[in-house]
Design goal:
single chain
């Protein structure tokens, strides 16, 4: 997956937009992020529904919403926890729970996570994503069919194959991969693999 270079100024402007949305939307505590780029066939399934609808640029996403890309399609999400997420083609991702960044919290709209609880939780059931969050003290989880990744302040790519097998390539930060069979800690420059029915393991990233 080719990762486009980020535009920090643009992302800061989008974050400001999210803050303004946060202050005006009813039920703002559910706001999870915004679709800031779509290309090709991109659809959203809102939490609690079974219907996929065509995505819109700058569409707000709530906790529990799913995003799907089709063949030769791409999408990018800016989350309320300041994660930048890019979806490759044929990918399905769910924003299960997104805890807003402390600097985006206003009043009592965004209660902090309980001590020891990962602040945000994402899911990838198929396809490939790139995720970047530079806040070193912020940790969150990402689930696939074969493994749970506990992540702290990082940049990584995650690829989920049709059988659920998962590859996690860590570029920066710290990641622990765990499932019912075991766990492994990744350092920058390492790739973790989780195959169905096996403990995750790692190898040097080529």
């Amino acid at each position: 997956m080719k990762v486009p270079k980020g535009n920090s100024c643009f992302c800061k402007m989008m974050l400001l937009g999210l803050v303004l949305t946060w202050t005006t939307l009813v039920g703002a505590a559910e706001l999870a992020g915004r679709l800031i780029f779509i290309q090709g066939q991109v659809a959203v399934r809102q939490a609690g529904t079974d219907v996929w609808q065509k995505a819109r640029l700058n569409q707000d996403l709530a906790g529990g919403d799913m995003v799907r890309t089709g063949p030769n399609s791409r999408a990018a999400i800016l989350s309320m926890d300041e994660s930048q997420i890019k979806l490759n083609e044929n990918t399905v991702m769910v924003l299960r729970r997104v805890a807003p960044s402390p600097r985006l919290r206003l009043g009592e709209l965004a209660p902090a996570a309980q001590a020891g609880e990962p602040a945000s939780l994402y899911g990838v059931t198929q396809g490939e994503i790139w995720l970047r969050n530079k806040k070193e003290q912020f940790f969150f989880e990402l689930e696939t069919p074969t493994v749970t990744a506990t992540i702290r302040g990082t940049e990584l790519t995650v690829r989920v194959l049709p059988d659920g097998a998962t590859r996690v390539a860590l570029l920066e930060g710290d990641v622990k991969l765990a499932n019912r069979y075991g766990e492994v800690i990744l350092a920058a420059g390492e790739e973790g693999l989780a195959l169905p029915g096996r403990a995750p393991f790692k190898q040097v990233l080529v």
